Amino acid sequence: MTTTAAFEFLLSDERERLIYGVFKRLHLTPLHPQYQDFLQESRIIFVEAYLAYQKRHPTMENEHDLMLFAYQRIRWRLLDMLRKEQQHRSNCQSMDSMLNDESDAPLSFDLADPATRDTEEETVNCELYERLLQECTENEAKYLRESFLFMRPITQIAKMHGVSRQSVYNWRTGVQRKAKIIFAADDSAASKSLSA
């Protein structure tokens, strides 16, 4: 069976009510900002579930079992999406509050639970970030902060700061130059310590 046939199956005989049942269970109302996106995603997930169920049961005898299978698939995927959205929102809020803090205290990248961190890699990244931030101009620091902490693309950074993309590319080039200098200094220091 094709994807088209699976969509036709979903849209016939009011089977789309299954999706609205999942939405009701997850408390997703039309007021949710991602409601339409989740609705489209759910339709696609239903089609994927339909095709997966068909592979397992080629005769497709029991529609009730198919609908239960699709319901669970949609529910689990939407829960994953909602968790990711919540985690992203939480990360953004905590980073915004940390960056908007008016105190002169330095930024701390410590996690609440030390067992959850990859200490060596995280320490290297934070040290490099802090060293680069000290060496950067104001604009290069803007680029570094937006790209490293928030992982924003160049186009978005340019829009946020009201400059051209080329300006942001220039900021990035400056950061890269400074990073190469820091790496070269670290390499020479490491080779001196090994030879001693």
Description:
This protein is mainly α and 196 residues long. It is built from 8 helices and no strands. The protein has helices spanning 3-11, 17-25, 35-56, 63-99, 119-135, 138-149, 154-161, 165-195. It is elongated.
Low-confidence stretches: 102-119
The mean pLDDT is 79
What global shape is seen? elongated
H/E element order: HHHHHHHH
Query: How large a portion of the residues is in β-strands, by DSSP E?
Result: under 5%
The total beta strand count reads 0
Oligomer: single chain
Distance between the termini: 71 Å
Spatial extent as radius of gyration: 25 Å
User: Helicity range of the residues?
Assistant: over 70%
Total number of helical segments?
Answer: 8
For the biggest sheet, the summary is: none
List keywords for this structure.
8 helices; single chain; mainly alpha; 196 residues; elongated
Compact summary:
With 196 residues, this protein is mainly α. Helices cover 74% and strands 0% of the residues. The chain is elongated.
Per-chain topology:
Layout: H1 3-11, H2 17-25, H3 35-56, H4 63-99, H5 119-135, H6 138-149, H7 154-161, H8 165-195
